[in-house]
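User: Teach me something about this protein's shape.
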Amino acid sequence: MIRNEIKTYLENLDREQKALASYNGEHDIAKAIKDILAKDTNYKPTIEDIAEQMAFDFMAEYPNDNSGWETYHGPMFILPNQQGQMVEYPSIKRIDEETLKYWAKRAIETKNPILSSRYADLVVDFSPKVINKNADIDLFQIVIDSNIAICEKSLADPLDCKTKIKRALVLAIQINNQEKIAKVKETIINLEKKATTDDKPGLWGFAFKWLILDFGKKISLSGTEKTELIKDLEDRLKRVEKDVWLAENAVSLLAEYYAIEKDEKNLMRVLGVLENSLKTNERSNSDALLKTHAYEQIHEIYRKYANRFAEAEKANKRLSQEIGQLDLDWNKSLKEISVTTEIKQKDIDDFLKAIFGDKEQGKLETIVAKIVINFLPKKEAVEKQLKDISGKHPLQFLCTTQVISDDGIPIAKLSTLEEDYDNHFQRYASQYLQFGSFFLTLATDELKKRVSKQNITEYFSNSTLFGNDNKEYLERAISAYWDNDYLVASHLFNPLIESATRELIKNCGGIILRPNNLGGYDRLTLCQLLKGQGNIIENVFSGMGQNMAFYFRLVLTEKLGMNLRNDFAHGFGKKKFFTRDVSDRLFML
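Assistant: First, the predicted structure itself:
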């Protein structure tokens, strides 16, 4: 039996039928029931009390399927208990056949459409999961009629009304009741007409989206109704076209419609409105990053339609050219962040001792090998770093991340860590290399003190990977590096590394040439060699205990890595080739 105070409270709601105070106002009902139960700590809630409270604490239009039920309603929250197990509230698993029967009874007897809608909808939603069959058709109709009444009488917040009328539309289509579909359609159109202000895009455009785009094949629209919906959205676009956010909301809907209709002229017209809005918006042009983002937005939209419409493909190519020609001042957009870390001299001494030995210096080949091994990106270390950072700063990995090149060009967008782990790993592996640049510099400085440029040049000259045509390159590169002329050293190291890699693969029986259409052969590029013949590099350096092919790509050819070979070859990021850390890393290769 239900507690008298709760019964009285619900009866008052039935009589008053006034608008709820907040969005998803059902939770206000649940709170009121909780407050009643909390007054008497000795009172043990009945099954009916719990059913009433639970009914209004479920979240409608549940945003994901964390509950595992894939239902329209879901738990208000899911939190860990003291044992670390995830517990949901309210618990969907507590619903049984008796609970469904109780809600069905309440849906029929109550007069407040907010109450009857929630009771009936829970039965409709959960019956297939709990009792393996659909609810009675009458309960579907109660939800539909109640939600229509809520919207017509404005008993809920406007956004909540929008949610409820969409639910009514989905259920009317599900039971294929044309009379209900027609009534819901009429309510949707009238609901959107109430949205007289343009600055709230959540309250307009939904009639066009649902009745024309999403459910157009299942809803009968008269020619006049369709024309009016299109005209209303076009008129709104004219009013909001100077506001990027509002214009994008209107254009995204109209563009999709005109694309479906194969109306290229109107498609390009509305896309042109958005392009102009983005290009002339004061905020979008306030700094380089925002300006680039604005161009990328419209570029992506043109790209979406480029494979279906010739004019969109032309615009797509035009935007690509314009992005490449933008005059951007990145100094105003990017901020430099530095962190100071104290390193004890003892730590430095111990580090160098581990590489070069204590009293007696080890062999040169052993020293070089130790330097290389110490500064490879260890997979476990990078994974731990990525895990630690994502744990401390989760928001950083819940949205798209823009990656900027050394010369200020956006080169990639990374989605969430879960969706794009490999690229995030590659990016952090590159940062791992940069974090170790200080100790790498210490090691190479110590090497220069202990080994002359003649001896180190002779050491590398004895390698079978450096043929006669590499000898002068090698001598000049080592000499420049030992004399701290890092620009010259880096520019000479790059072709030496590529030549040595090609020689290594050839000597191991790998493929370095491919036929061309002129009857001859083309040399495989370094990128092709490292990706296609990476197994050879792995076998040669198997004793290192690390993925050497990945390391080569990270330093030389990957956009999310240091990309030193490609930047050198194409003249990008020229300033970094003056720096010590780039030369150190190339020497280590």
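Now, about its shape. The first helix runs from residue 4 to 16. The chain has a mean pLDDT of 81. If you'd like, I can walk through any region in more detail.
User: That's plenty for now, thanks!
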